[in-house]
Design goal:
Distance between the termini: 34 Å
Number of domains: 1
CATH class: Alpha Beta
Radius of gyration: 19 Å
CATH superfamily: Aldolase class I
CATH topology: TIM Barrel
Number of helices: 14
Largest sheet: 8 strands, parallel
CATH architecture: Alpha-Beta Barrel
Strand order of the largest sheet: 10-8-7-6-5-4-3-11
Structural class: alpha/beta
């Protein structure tokens, strides 16, 4: 039995689709499905303060549920390998270091185009599968370099913006930075919110900020970073998630990767359930991106299990789920090599950039 029997890789995206001739039905434009209902891309909604203010989170129940993820069932052998390949196709391969260079970004893009060594691809028998990461994520300075390096691959370029990671630069500068990145060729923009709006329950100000960011993105997808490690409570995370979706976010993202606490399963559970309720109420789908601290193949399986159990198969594709990853790919490769050969390889055999 081959991996093709266990894994179907859909690398298409709404950004890549062309308009269909004639009348377009809702099913033609749907990007996801939940409980048998086709879901449209998020267009945003008017700010509903009654909804926001009534959001509650049972912290102990969330923590108990999060502890069961990854323990209720296990994925082994070829099924585990197939899930790891799926994880690769949902990665935003990232470099956001102060010492980044154009050459490092070009090396990262080369890895994005072929995330698994050719020798390992042959051992796994997956030559026919189009395995590549979903996007490369870089600072604005390197957007043009990344765009040239991945041209023709179908991989997207994501740029962090709005004064990343603190998000405290003047508002006009943050909006201008978004526009500059889009003009340089970014397909996706990862923005940082003003956390003080959450602390002060200034939901209208937060809504207006994100809506302005969405408008500045034009055709690019907007990923809104909540900075969950800074938000102190799960209720704050849940309410910020709802406001971000109402303001038009295409994705909500846990963290910048620079906070003391980044992506955790309890935070991810709260955010995915906010996405689920939003889909039920509006008929629109919002993606989810955990980022920061996800470094092992085992962790990738935990987050994939969370998405499947809480949101369904539509959130197992890059169009609605991403990992913010810089170090996880090497461990995934090592696990795949172990599956193919029965031996673990050394880390240095799987460099990123």
């Amino acid at each position: 039995m081959t991996f093709s029997d266990h894994l179907r890789i859909d690398t298409s995206s709404s950004l890549d689709r062309q308009a269909l001739p004639g009348r377009i039905s809702p099913s033609d434009t749907a990007i996801g499905n939940y409980a048998g209902r086709d879901l449209q891309p998020n267009r945003g909604a008017p700010l509903n303060l009654d909804w926001v203010n009534t959001v509650r989170v049972n912290t102990s129940a969330v923590e108990r549920r999060a502890q069961t993820i990854g323990t209720r069932r296990t994925v082994k052998k070829e099924w585990q390998a197939a899930w790891l390949l799926r994880a690769i196709t949902c990665m935003d391969l990232t470099t956001l270091s102060g010492d980044d260079t154009h050459e490092r970004v070009r090396r990262l893009c080369a890895k994005a185009r072929q995330p698994i060594q050719q020798e390992l691809i042959q051992k796994l028998g997956i030559e026919s599968l189009p395995i590549k990461v979903a996007a490369v994520c870089v600072y604005h300075t390197f957007v043009e370099t990344a765009r040239r390096a991945i041209e023709g691959s179908g991989i997207h370029v994501a740029a962090v913006s709005t004064g990343f990671p603190a998000g405290l630069s003047p508002f006009e500068e943050r909006v201008a930075e978004i526009r500059s990145s889009v003009e340089a060729g970014a397909d996706e923009i990862d923005v940082v919110i003003t956390r003080a709006h959450v602390f002060g329950a200034k939901w209208q100000a937060l809504y207006d900020e994100i809506a302005a960011f969405k408008n500045a993105c034009g055709p690019a997808h907007l990923k809104v970073i909540l900075g969950s490690g800074d938000l102190l409570t799960l209720r704050n995370v849940a309410r910020a998630s709802v406001v971000a979706m109402m303001a038009g976010a295409d994705f909500i993202k846990t963290s910048t990767g620079k906070e003391a606490t980044n992506a955790t399963l309890p935070v991810s559970l709260v955010m995915t359930r906010a996405i689920r309720r939003y889909a039920q109420e509006t008929g629109m789908a919002v993606g989810f991106k955990p980022a920061g601290g996800i470094r092992t193949a085992k962790q990738s399986l935990d987050w994939l299990a969370l998405m499947k159990e809480e949101l369904g198969d539509s959130w197992l594709k890059a169009e609605l789920f991403r990992f913010g990853a810089s170090g996880m790919l090497a461990d995934v490769e090592r696990q795949l090599e172990h599956h193919a050969t029965g031996r673990y390889s050394a880390d240095y055999r799987h460099p990123i950039a």
